[in-house]
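Quick start: what a row looks like.
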Amino acid sequence: MPGVTDFGASANGNGDHQKTKQDTLHVIDSRTGRYQAIPIRRNAINANELRGFKTPKDEDRPEDQNEQGLRVYDPGFSNTVVSESKITYINGLKGEIYYRGYSIQDIVGKKTFTEISHLLIWGKWPTQEEKTKFQQRLNSVPLPDGSVFQVIRSFPKNGSIIGMMIAGLSALQSCDMDAIPAHAAQNLYMGQPERVDEQIVRVMSSLSAITAAAYCHHMDIPFTPPRADFSYIENFLLMVGLVDKQTGLPIQRYANVLERLWAVVADHEMTCSTAALLHTASALPDVISCLTSAYCALYGPLHGGAIEVAYKQIQEIGTIDDIPAKLARVRAGKERLYGYGHRVYRVTDPRFTFIRDILDELSEEVSQDPLLCVAFELDRQASQDEYFTARKLRPNADFFAALAYKALGFPPEFILPISILSRTQGLMSHWREAMLGGFISSGLQDIWKRVLISAETRALDIMVRNFSWCTEVVWHCEPTNWRDENYPNIFQGF
């Protein structure tokens, strides 16, 4: 996804741009002859500047609203910037991802979930004291009320785990009505950092338990309560029963795998689900309302749901011997191959390298799963197929993360729920940014405008199937070298 940032590059890309020069778009309206100079900031113009280009009302097409100024028609929001953010920057052409200015190359495997969450949400690496306090705050949140677990257990065991999570969150929401702005009849979170932070900690902790409870209900296994002396990831493994059979403790090797997996997928800029969260946030509800909007978007097969679709496609292939026939059908345009290609990256997904390393470490588990063997052989054959190489269709990191979860022992139907849990730290950071001075104050709820084909037809909604319909301006997110005196021991240990 395109983004704009001040990474020290000049406006013209040649390094010789005069910073004192005002970048300007000169526009002449051929309908009226009106001229206007529109400032260009961070390679973007303010669409409101176009409202000055007005013409008399068209009585035959009043729905065009000529007298209200020129509008921008961008189906799918393929080239529309809707917000400014300091959180994540992605360079799809070079295959780079930065969290708050730090390359994931310098983060994955070197920083923990707690530290990365703190960086994304609060904008800086925590000191040891802040890290400990954050973990203690997460662990001190009581388990959700029994009614939350009752709601989850009311679902059929083979029902939608995402549905269980959303229902569990809704039940959690109802356990604290005073945290709902409409019920309290006041603004609770906009410009209220203490309340925002309190809700972030509460919901992050509770969501882990809700996700684990949904898994246990689906698998018909007992739910184990978390411990105050475990990390966030260790507690999750404990709650879902992924523990050493002899000690009853989380398998540390698997905890290390999740630490790296969740670091790789912590945030991915303005995705469909992030935009859904922010759109809901613009009405100033509580964070649970915002998260459920995001999770509903993630469930779609053109977003997070594609992970499950891709895995089921592997199941449909069946065996290694059936792979050539599958690729032939893809080349003939009869079928699609999910798990390959990405809307952002034109080079190898930078996350893929980390995930492939993880899968190599799980080679023993992979070798014992016939479907995972099919997936790896499919990757090998596709990487040598001219159809895929010519189109630069490379493996999708999200799909291979799904394979890693499967190697850890999670069933395919739980891959999306655990992926959603891992992304929550990023979603929380976007909610906090919006509540504390993001673009909501400028009226996000008014930005989704429609173009009517005619006064008699239904609205043609510009939010169409392309889930990459939002772009954001990422600013003040300069690449940072955090090998400094503040973090003398960051490369020692995990």
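That is the whole record. Residues 96-299+429-440 form a domain with the Citrate Synthase; domain 1 fold (CATH 1.10.580.10). The beta strands are 3-4, 24-28, 35-39, 81-85, 88-91, 96-99, 102-103, 451-452, 459-460, 471-474.
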